[in-house]
Every structure is written in structure tokens, then in C-alpha cells.
Amino acid sequence: MAKCRVCDREAWVKIPWANTWFCREHFIEYFERKVWRTFSKYVSRNHEKILFTVSGGKDSLALLYSLAPRLVREGYSVSVLFIDLGIRGYSEHARGIVKEHVESLGLELIVFDLKKEYGFTIDDLAFAVYNHLFNRPVCSLCGVIKRYIYNLVAYKRDYDLIVTGHNLNDTYGFIMSALTTGQVSELIKFKPYISGGEGFIAKAKPLFFNYEYENRLYTIAKDVKVILHPCPHAPREEHGLVSSYKKQLRILEKNHPGIGLMFVKNILRNVIEPLSKVVQEKRERKLVKCSICGMPASTDPCSFCRIKIKIDKIKTKSYTS
Ligand SMILES: [Zn+2]
Ligand SMILES: [Zn+2]
């Protein structure tokens, strides 16, 4: 019988890359300490008002439970943002789950309803994508929209830090995909912390060094109900580059436990951090103000407004014809 490394009781879980076993209680302790270590090592001490973005999935809920109570104890003001993307048979369910958890933690919940605020849903967007009206996949467009809303809500309500639940598997997929397509300057986005300025709110990814496996285990250990089925639009992305690399990582980890963690740690230190010093300086000079929404952007109109203009046009056409 395998035993917990800390207390010698019967083990509940194995951490393959550390070749370590934990009982349930000490796994929770290990997880929370790890998340806190990432947060305190990378995130600036100058923040006060923190906005958690929570989708109802395992990652964002693992992050919320493992970090938010600690931040509240440390004196930070913490709220949660949920975006209702209007995905049929999915968003409503997610909204209910998130509401339940946020209430049980005694935090403030901000719900941003995409349809109410902007008149379209991700289902509308998906319909347009399947009809070849956009030349980007739904998940990539949805990502642009979510990032825009995170920043907008944080900016308008004076939050100074946005935290998201990106896990190590996602980051591995994004980094490998950026390398494969030669978009090396994109690598600077993949850091545990990006400082803010000029209308951009600072961002932290405290699960940067956490495998999705760990996050899922934490929600099981803590009995946190999460949405288990994937977004209905996700299967269409299965053959995308990022997904392929995430699959590859799962295979690699079987024979080389910890390889993904080692890769992400090393590329962050040896490539991404030195590179971001060079690229960021160049980028700052190129910022413009979007003439439609007034938010800072690298293009005018900003990428969100360009999506919105296109979807508005498509909707007007389909209603009138
Ligand atoms: Zn133990
Ligand atoms: Zn705009």
C-alpha cells in the first residue's frame, strides 16, 4: 500500500512527475501551496482589486477555491466575472454552477451577458464560422471576445488584476503552436504574469505550472462540482494545432512524467522572459485607440469591434433576406 509522503496514511493520489503520493488532505495542501507559490513569485505586490474569470470548468474553479480565500485573508478585494456566451445547452448550466460556488465562497459575482450587451452569442458566431464567413476557428474568435470583455469589465470597474485559469497543458499547446508556425514574438503572451498599463489591466495565470490533471484532482478532492462535458463547439477544433500538441503532451507524459512542466519552466526562463523585454518595448509604441469602442488596441478598429461589425452585418443580411 502506497503511503502519503506527509502523514504516512494510505495514499489517495500519485503525482507521477514528482514520484510522490499524497492522502486527500495533504494533496489539497500541496495544491494550494503550489498555486500560492506561483502567485507570490510572479505577481506584483501592487495590486488591490482582483477579478477572477470563472467559466465553470475544472481549471477556473480549482483556481477560485485554491486562491481566492487566501487572497481575501491577505486583504485583497476579490470578485468573480462570469461571461454568459449564449451557448445553447451549455452557458445556462455553467452560469448556475458558477453562481452556486461564488455564493458559497461569499464573493461578489459579476455576470456579463454577451447577447444582452452586444446582441450576439457564440452560437451566432459559430454559425457564421461554419458558413465560412470568418477565416478563423470559433475558439480563437471566442478567445478574442473573452479577453476583450475581461479587460473591459476590469477597466470600467477599477480592478487592477485579472486572474485566469489557464493550465500547463494549454500553455504547452499554445507555445508549441507558436513555435511551429514561426510566430516567435507571440511567445511573450505566455507568462504567469503580464503587467498592465495604458488601459490594459494586468493579468495573472496562477495555474501556469499546473497540469489539467492536478486541477481536476483538486476539484474532486474538494468535492467541487464542475462542468465536465466540453463546450459543444470544441470538437470542431480537435484537429487544430493546439489540440494536437495537447494530445502529444499526454502521450509524452506517459513515458516521461514531468516533461511538460520542465519544458514550460525552461522556455519561460530561457526564452520568453528575455524575449519579452525586447518585444514589449517595440509594441508599446504601436498602440492606438479603437475609434469605435475607445479601448486601447494594436489595430483600429480593435479585433473585438471587427468581429462585432462583421457579425452585425451577417445578422442584418439574414434577417432582411
Ligand atoms: Zn497525508
Ligand atoms: Zn473596439
In short, what is this structure?
With 321 residues, the protein is an alpha/beta fold. The chain has helices at residues 24-42, 58-73, 91-104, 114-118, 122-130, 138-156, 168-180, 212-221, 241-255, 259-284, 303-320; strands spanning 13-15, 20-22, 49-53, 77-84, 108-113, 161-163, 193-194, 202-204, 288-289, 296-297. The model has no long low-confidence stretch (mean pLDDT 92).
Which structural class matches the secondary elements? alpha/beta
Query: What's the CATH architecture name of the largest domain?
Result: 3-Layer(aba) Sandwich
CATH topology annotation of the largest domain: Rossmann fold
Query: In CATH, what is the class of the largest domain?
Result: Alpha Beta
| Ends distance | 69 Å
